[in-house]
Amino acid sequence: MASRLTGRPATGGRQLSGAPAEVTLDDGTVVVVKRGHGPRAVRAEVAGLRWLAAAGAVRVPAVRGYDEHWMVTERIPTGPPDAWAAVRFGRGLAALHSAGAPAFGAPPPDGPQDAYIGLAPMRNRPGADWPRWYAEHRVLPYLRGAVDDGTLRAAEAAVVERVCERLPGLAGPAEPPARLHGDLWNGNVLWGADGHVRLIDPAAHGGHRETDLAMLHLFGCPHLDRILAGYQEAAPLADGWAERVGLHQLFPLLVHTVLFGRGYAEQALRVARRALAG
User: Fold this and answer.
1) Secondary structure (DSSP) of the chain
2) Cα–Cα nearest to 113, from 102, 101, 125
3) What is the pLDDT of residues 111-169, one digit of tens each?
4) Active site residues per annotation
5) Backbone angles phi, psi at 5, to 5 degrees
């Protein structure tokens, strides 16, 4: 597969944890080969990587070749998380967000509107008003899915629906659409051996910049305080951003509810109740 997509013979390879494999080409280059998990998944990921790279802000692995089912990217040698790399990453993430998007929900150029976040389908439908768009296209579809499969009861879902109704008053100052990675948990942050962070596996789209930061908070990230310091230095966040972290976590928590079950549903409900109480 790597040979066909890169045009170079392969001389060896090994399976990594999960689906990807490392393959060595005849010139000694090591690449990562990954199979898409659904229709348009590879096209969405390639378009996302290229859109993020075009901002010239945060590094991503170069795409060496792809088709409808497979993609080949450069392999990134990794090292331990570094505090100074974290500050640089924070500044770069601020610049990435500032590169902007045509609208909330805008897909990357040449990317499909029907894409994915992890293994879950994610629709990129443009909207001009963030609270309305976020409720309609990021929170409610996964909430309905969780109710339909019995993970959440209708009475529990009503708590999240009330948060959606109140979003215009909870969302903070209006911001322009940011260029988001879209699935920015720690596993998609590679600490390069060269001291530079790379981002992998994007669910890229136009969104609110606080959503990427909320994802980093949700699942933890080494040197998060330094990342935030670099970010704030480059592009200060609006007052009250820390109190809004939970609002932005509703989206990934409900995605995980649909994919992985009740434990994440309970987290989503706690976040929603705190938002209403505040």
Assistant:
1) -HHHHHSS-EEEEEEPSSS-EEEEETTS-EEEEEE-SSTTHHHHHHHHHHHHHHTTSSB-PPEEEE-SSEEEEE---B----HHHHHHHHHHHHHHHHT--SSBTPPPTT--SEEEETTEEEE---BS-HHHHHIIIIIHHHHHHHHHTTSS-HHHHHHHHHHHHHHHHHS-S--PPEEE-S---GGGEEEBTTS-EEE-S---EEE-HHHHHHHHHHH--TTHHHHHHHHHHHSPPPTTGGGGHHHHHHHHHHHHHHHH-HHHHHHHHHHHHHHHH-
2) 125
3) 999 999 999 999 999 999 999 999 999 999 999 999 999 999 999 999 999 999 999 99
4) 183
5) -85, -25
Rounded-to-integer distance, Cα 233 and Cα 189, Å: 20
Stated pTM of the model:
0.94
| Backbone φ, ψ for residue 56 (5° rounding) | 65, 30
Length of the chain: 278
